[in-house]
Batch of 4 targets.
Target 1
Amino acid sequence: MEEKKIRIESSEMSKDMINVAIQVVRKFEKAKTEKDMAIDIKREFDLQFFPTWQCIVGKSFGSEIGFEEENMLYFYWGEYAILLWKAG
């Protein structure tokens, strides 16, 4: 199976946290739905970097978010867009 490409669109997050996000996505890539993947990513970030994280995973979505400084990542994993941010 070919590994899906990662493409960072926007980041206000340390490289270490970005690497964790990528590892988490790869770890949960077999999630059954986009919702399941978003839940898995959110829970993992809540555990590793303290609550409260939010995550959206999908092929098409729009958003307007507020986030804690240096705690936001928007990237593509294959055809899926993933938006991850800490919201207080």
Target 2
Amino acid sequence: MKMTKIFAITLGALALTACSQTMKQPEKHSHWGYTGHESPEHWAQLSPKFAICGEGKSQSPVNIVNTIDGKLPPIKIDYRPSNVEIVNNGHTIQVDFKDANNMMHLSGNTYTLKQFHFHVPSENHIRGKSFPLEAHFVHADKDGNLAVLGVLYVLSNENQRLSPIWSNFPQKAGEKYTPDTAFDPSTLIPEKRDYYRFSGSLTTPPCSEGVNWLVLKQYDKVSQSQVDAFSAVMKGNNNRPVQPINARVIVE
């Protein structure tokens, strides 16, 4: 109960700003990236709006090492086939939802799935281990508080459930593709939903804090060719390095 209150306080004032910035991620002309003078170590200097990327004390991603047992409430997923738009925003491949009919229920709160996107290699680590791919499912509640569900992938054979996205990558930044058929995001969520929970931030500028992070313990699979195809479209990796834990607690 105490841990729930802590998260509620943390997510309060800052999350509305984080939500509005997340919705702006597809902008074409964002002057940040993952290489050279626009790489993550320089984000805080690129704009005053990005200062928290360097000053923040609850930044994401993290290396999950030390945890406490908090008897976390179950994650209830209510996703269904939906109309989507696949966007190459220059920083990732993002799948935006045109309908507000995909919900995640947690601790008596309801979050609507806004979009999901990918990072190669993973941004979050588990006990020092990096993964070839990570998906972030970005949700917001009615007050704008954000909850991001992270799914990590291990190398295996081809993941056919990713095919509707992978076979329709927009090849250039700013391009979009609207599939003719609905896509069911529930196919990308592992059946077992034990998770790690911590307070964090957006992993891209402006790095707004107050984001409720949920990283699933069960991994999904992806092939090396799928990883390579994503990297080719992105022209390299698109992951922010892990950030200091500082005074935060990771609950499992």
Target 3
Amino acid sequence: MSISLRKITHQVSIGDVKVGGGAPVVVQSMTNTDTVNVSATVKQIIELATAGSELVRITVNSEEAAKAVAEIRSRLNQKGWSVPIVGDFHFNGHKLLEKYPDCAEALDKYRINPGNVGRGKSRDPQFQQMVEFACRYDKPVRIGVNGGSLDQAVLTRLLDENRALKYPEPLPAVTRKAIVLSALESAAKAEEIGLAKNKIILSCKISNVQELINIYQDLSSRCDYALHLGLTEAGMGSKGIVSSSAALSVLMQQGIGDTIRISLTPEPGASRTQEVIVAQEILQTMGFRSFTPLVISCPGCGRTTSDYFQKLAMDIQSYLRDQMPVWRTRYPGVEAMEVAVMGCVVNGPGESKNANIGISLPGTGESPVAPVYEDGLKTVTLKGDKIAEEFQGVVQRYIESHYGSSAAH
């Protein structure tokens, strides 16, 4: 299957990160700590960045939060973390940016929701103020329209126009148009105020998969701004993962999207980093980017009544992901490696030969030996009680010999 060419949009620089303009799709995430709690927020930003988040958004919803932003940036810098920080502003952003210039300066990007910057006559002046601050501090802006907080003035206008038609469109169709129009009109207004196209990112996020696809197809056909993709309020667990994957994969296969976030509801006490891992795995399984070696493993059947191969696949996957923060700089290219952990002789040898390195474990009733293949050739046969430990060692040696500084590329 061929991968669609990405649509070329204006490139936006956010710190050292490039979004759009042919740059790789960027993974971003958002903290769920109270921004006022500087230590907790810094800790979670580092966790997200370590997992691979290339942009991290934080909530800036109060004076106390705005006061904390500069200290958060300072502590991150002291710890050697330059990951760009995005300020998530809603109802009072214009006031906070005016009152706390250190906050305005410390952030790498502002996020503005046109539906939440003011009501009635106050909307345009407040939106203008925020854009003017972006111009003053040379910051890019994401104009993010959400279905749940759509600018009602735009929707009302389109509904009035729709009622006057001979054949009015249904409400969902009008709402889709209102979401796209709100983003485009706000971007045009920002340009009028003085914000350059290469300082603008647009998003139009809702929670319905098919509606989201339709909206972004329309938006992409009508502009060349960089686009942020995300299915908002995606949900928890497999539901959130599947719905986000379905929506974003369709769009990216059509060349739409420059940066993505997976808006999962985390389980109580669960790590926030799951949304980063899911975003990476969508991009990697589709062939757009590589982040960590992929483990190919079979689902199991009556031939694999032991759970040995399942545990080994899980251990190897965890081992590879845990090592990536170090390997990323030590072993360039290792993120594209494939490791096969197979459970029986049916597909085991074939899949192992197709991977960079693979192991075919014995299924029920098979000889208690596990052949290992490297680049299609059998190099060793493991047996006994320490197959897992020995295979991990084989993987490590393969990485050192193929991706290390002394390896021939």
Target 4
Amino acid sequence: MDAPLLVNGEGAKLLAEDGDYVPARNFKTVKDVFWIETKRMWVIALPIVFNIWCQFGVNSVTSIFVGHLGDIELSAISLINSVIGSFAFGFMLGMGSATETLCGQAFGAGQVNMLGIYMQRSWVILSVTSILLLPIYIFAAPILKLLGQQTDIADLAGNFSILVIPQFLSLAFNFPTQKFLQSQSKVNVIAWIGLVALVLHVGMLWLLVYTLELGLTGAALAFDITSWGITAAQLIYVVVWCKDGWTGLSWLAFKDIWAFVRLSLASAVMLCLEVWYMMSVIVLAGHLDNAVVAVDSLSICMNINGWEGMIFIGINAAVSVRVSNELGLGRPRAAKYSVYVTTFQSLLLGVFFMGIVLTTRNYYALIFTNSLVLQEAVSKLGVLLAITMVLNSVQPVISGVAVGGGWQALVAYINVGCYYLFGLPLGFLLGYKANLGVEGLWGGMICGILLQTFLLMFILYKTNWKKEVEQTNARMLVWGGQQIEVDKIAASA
């Protein structure tokens, strides 16, 4: 930490001898720590948020271009992005999040040479995972029909799904490479790559969808090219400019790979249960009367929610980096204060965006559709969207803490109970049995998110951060190559 941060305005020390914060027991110390942690978090978070916005913008802009082709086309691409894409994306992102935990803690512990090994292990694991998940894309049409979706929408979605398989395969290299860079706070380059990709993607969509009149095929082709362009740019940067963490391809990537898989699976289950939860709203809406309007109105709301959610996914990544780095450095109080500051600021942002949604709920559907019926349906969902935005401002941050600390398995159990044993059945009862339709489905699932958020905040409050440091040290000994039984990593994770 820089020297000017060692004391506050009254000359009192902010740091102990070990580099950790002293206890914040007065207003001045709290204010100074709050300001320091705010700067540290946003220096990491802003470029990540910008990059995620750009990458989400690729999805969103694609939906906007396709949406103006027709309602059926919008429903088809919405099903692929919200059901098939979310299912596969969630699992791949989860499998890649083990890299985030280990790279962040290794970087904090000074084991920079291990970052490239962890990334390569993740490449191998995610490549195999992507191949295993390919049937979901190949057989998307019959899967969607089995889930009760309309035949014409499912067939069109199935054709689009096959065309975007190259985009899906790029994730096996994209996610681990991003985590490698984020763990070292090398986030500005990710932001620039995302910006250039978004600009080029808009140009390709205009050319392929409208000028060449290729419709959904043109949208899929632009999607594939943009995704692989992002991945290739990140890989080139790692190989050419990251000499400390990247020392070349190594057979060590295959050593102890099963234990790495186990940690990856815990991450995957945790994140998948969150991603698939909101995906299930779209699936259930497809069984309601006037399914096209139900699916399209929800998809538009989810798209708007996604733009706000990308901010908090970026904050999620930033707090994960902060927590994992500080735990790796053996600074429990710094990790704790970083979490508290980030959670408080995220809640304020959520309230701010709730106000924007409530103010503009009669207008934002115009961006996606010319249908007056669809615009009215979206407006009715505005209050639920606003509440979701507040809850989604806190929940991703706590998930980021879980990734940074290696708590994925615990959060997975909580997600199962809150989402699938409580929220989803409640949404089904309100939507179908109480005849509340889309509002009932979404309202019940909001209750599940609310319960999960309260439980995670309680666990966060009760966390023993000194014990987390001890577990991190044990984990680094294992993954740093010391002679400790590999099975211990599963217990500590």
